[in-house]
Write a structure and sequence with these properties.
mainly beta; seven-stranded mixed β-sheet; four-stranded antiparallel β-sheet; 11 strands; about 0% helix; globular
Length: about 120
């Protein structure tokens, strides 16, 4: 069982920045695939960013150029740096991983972008 714990969410004004962290319960060196997803009430959870290996990244069109996903194998942590935040980025953000064919999710962290 892989446990994922997100942190770093909160209230931020439009144009501001936040960095989300996903602490992983085991050594992530051998885990290839991590992602961040988000969900708003009444809508499906959607992919925000994924990182495969150390450097191969994919982003949703709505966040390209504003969000950056990275991983720190030494800290067993995956990050999502979010800049130029917009009200439409408001959502619960979830960390995700895939290991040995099983998917794992964190409990999520709320991000609210509002003036």
């Amino acid at each position: 069982q892989v446990q994922l714990v997100e942190s770093g969410g909160g209230l931020v004004q439009p144009g501001g920045s936040l960095r989300l962290s996903c602490a992983v319960s085991e050594n992530i060196f051998s885990i290839n695939d991590f992602g961040w997803y988000r969900q708003v009430p009444g809508k499906q959870r959607g992919m925000v960013a994924r990182i495969i290996g150390s450097y191969s990244t994919t982003y949703a069109d709505s966040v390209k150029g504003r969000f950056t996903i990275t991983r720190d194998n030494a800290e067993n942590t995956v990050y999502l740096q979010m800049r130029q935040l917009k009200p439409e980025d408001t959502a619960v953000y979830y960390c995700w991983t895939l290991k040995n064919g099983a998917t794992y999710w964190g409990r999520g962290t709320q991000v609210t972008v509002s003036s």
